[in-house]
Design a protein that fits this description.
alpha/beta, D-Amino Acid Oxidase, Chain A, domain 2, nine-stranded mixed β-sheet, six-stranded mixed β-sheet, 28% strand
């Protein structure tokens, strides 16, 4: 069976669904090709923390785009709440970065000054007594902390599905099939071949996450995206609820659904999605360093996902070189949920207007052409 649309998006994770959302907002007819279900890979199991102020290459080469993406989330949320009935649990919450060693105080205080310099953010130093005044369940040996007044938090799976739902409200469709290739006429894509047929289109977006390397032979482009495995443990929530995202040796947050999440491992494990008792033990032990009561909480679930990672830590975003109408959106790594709305907006700009006002030169898909 052949279906004809303006844009075929390969991949139903948060990058692909964000692309579908912003493209349909421009009035385009979009089909998302996804064989495992929307938001069922890394987009469905990520913590959902939206932090544009720290992480790999922040400060640095990713900082400006991360901040743009954070602001795009805040613009998006009220619109998405009106356009979809799916509750993606978008909220702002305080972040508490705690220290257990006096030697770490000066570097964190420098970080605090940088956070305070970011427009719209406010952070302050707390000594150990101040920390326990906020929540006396935090570890007794905390020597100090920085309280950042607000970061974003979402349910990443529900956000992915809300984006797709809103796109479908504007006419997008989901093709429940596996993409197996692209049909070409010279340097122009005519459609995406699937196991059960073909989706004819005027443009193709490839948003296949850690599996992006599999489409190298379709595009003739080097796409060195590899999986970074992450495991998370979900536990029975505390009462009263923990009001902060608490980070230190481990990270703990009580999500809007009441569950307590202990996050997250970083593992070189290929495409292995199994959960392990060692990871579970490590996550609970690390979380207990900052919040000892997690050891008493009942474990509800343990998950694993594969984050798409590039060699330089930057996403791959833009038009495939030497191809007229094929675009890539992948490689968000641990910041994938944060970056997705901005990536979707950029793709809509490029496909509709052939340009974008958001600087993306460093994310060019062709930058790995000479990589062995």
């Amino acid at each position: 069976m052949t279906q004809t649309v303006d844009v075929a998006v390969i991949g139903g994770g948060i990058a692909g669904c964000a692309a579908a959302y912003y493209l349909t907002r421009e009035g385009l007819d979009v089909a998302v090709i996804e064989h495992q279900g929307v938001g069922n890979a890394a987009s469905g199991y990520a913590l959902g923390l939206l932090n544009p102020l720290s992480g790999a290459l922040i400060p640095g080469r990713l900082a400006a785009f991360a901040r743009e993406a954070f602001d795009e989330h805040l613009r998006l949320w009220p619109q998405l709440e009106e356009q979809s009935s799916i509750d993606f649990q978008g909220r702002m919450m305080p972040h508490l970065e705690v220290l257990l060693d006096e030697a770490d105080v000066p570097p964190l205080q420098e970080e605090m000054e940088r956070w305070n310099a970011a427009e719209g953010f406010s952070a302050r130093w707390l000594d150990g007594q101040d920390v326990h005044a906020l929540d006396d369940r935090i570890a007794d040996d905390v020597v100090g902390a920085v309280l950042l007044e607000r970061l974003g938090m979402v349910d990443s799976q529900q956000l992915t599905r809300a984006l797709m739902d809103a796109a479908c409200q504007r006419g997008a469709s989901i093709v429940h099939d596996r993409a197996i290739g692209i049909t070409w006429s010279g340097d122009r894509a005519l459609g995406v071949r699937t196991a059960g047929g073909e989706v004819a289109c005027h443009a193709v977006v490839i948003a296949t996450g850690p599996w992006s390397g599999a489409v190298e032979e379709w595009t003739g482009l080097r796409i060195p995206v590899t999986p970074l495995k992450g495991q998370i443990v979900r536990l029975e929530g505390l009462s009263p609820p923990l009001e902060y995202h608490v980070a230190g040796p481990g990270a703990v947050v009580q999500k809007a659904d009441g569950k307590l999440w202990a996050a997250a491992t970083e593992e070189e494990a290929g495409f292995d999605l199994s959960t392990t008792s060692q990871a579970r033990q490590d996550l609970i032990e690390r979380a207990a360093r900052v919040l000892p009561s997690v050891t008493q909480a009942r474990i509800l679930e343990q998950t694993a996902c594969l984050r798409p990672r590039t060699p330089d830590g930057l996403p791959i975003l833009g038009k495939v070189p030497s191809r007229k109408n094929v675009y890539l959106a992948t490689g968000g790594g641990k910041k994938g949920v944060l970056l997705a709305p901005a990536m979707g907006r950029v793709l809509a700009d490029l496909i509709v207007r052939r340009e974008t006002g958001i600087p993306i030169d460093e994310f060019a898909p062709g930058r790995f052409a000479g990589l062995k």
